[in-house]
Protein: ABC transporter ATP-binding protein
Organism: Halarchaeum nitratireducens
Amino acid sequence: MDGRIGISHLEKVYGEGSERTKAIDDLSFDIDGGEFTSVVGPSGCGKSTLLYIIAGFLDITNGTVSVDGTPIDGPGTDRGVVFQDYALFPWRTVKENVLYGLEEAGVPDEEADATAQRFIDMMDLSGFENKYPKELSGGMKQRVALARTLAYDPKILLMDEPFGALDQPLRETLQDQLIDIWGDLDKTVVFITHDVEEAVYLSERVMIMTRHPGTKKTVTEVDLDRSRPREDIVTSEEFTRKKNEVWRSLREETKSEVQP
Ligand SMILES: Nc1ncnc2c1ncn2[C@@H]1O[C@H](COP(=O)(O)OP(=O)(O)OP(=O)(O)O)[C@@H](O)[C@H]1O
């Protein structure tokens, strides 16, 4: 399946001289097309840096990052990014926001309109097409952002703590919606989160990064039957075991931060 991400000996250094910071050091990791991977790690370990490198927003210092075998050279419509703060256009309505990527891609009006409406419906936003972002709740704004990204059909979804600003019930609703979308649309998803439970609930693999400079520390494989209701999943023995495994690895990194 398309949407494979290859990361080989990635190094990212910001700044020069006394301002020099090595954010990522010798990180190698491959993600299969259609796979859902979460990335967790201590604050400042380079999670967002990694995501923005895959997005093509940032240059790399050393190593290679490729999509389907082709080294990344700037942003592209094969990758869509969803941010924590939604990044909607405040002067555009819901429909106009969702139409944005389709307009940029030169999709004819009628087809763009039908596609936008399909994703508006999929994200339960029907009836809100003509509202402006300021008239929406946080959860609705994030659903608009997701619809906007999905509408131009990227193979890869890059999500930077997308539900971090939402309260728990909303977060859970959006997590379940994302699992459905992932199942229906065959996307590769790279999902950054601080929430271990969220990472294990959503992903097939969780990569835990070392603290600054960040590299791959451990990878936990999660093979949960996600067709069950949430209550059954989160109370299952396997879910608890995987959560503890990720926690243990993460705690080691956070602990080493405060040791001399
Ligand atoms: N534009 C920049 N210029 C210089 N240093 C930067 C820049 N962006 C990030 N850094 C540094 O790179 C390191 C990694 O930052 P990054 O934001 O990728 O980490 P993170 O794991 O996403 O953090 P958090 O979990 O707190 O969001 C940090 O030390 C940060 O200070």
Remarks:
- The first strand starts at residue 5 and ends at 14.
- Residues 14-15, 21, 23, 41, 43-49, 212 surround adenosine-5'-triphosphate (CB under 6 Å).
- Residues 224 and 238 are 8 Å apart (CA to CA).
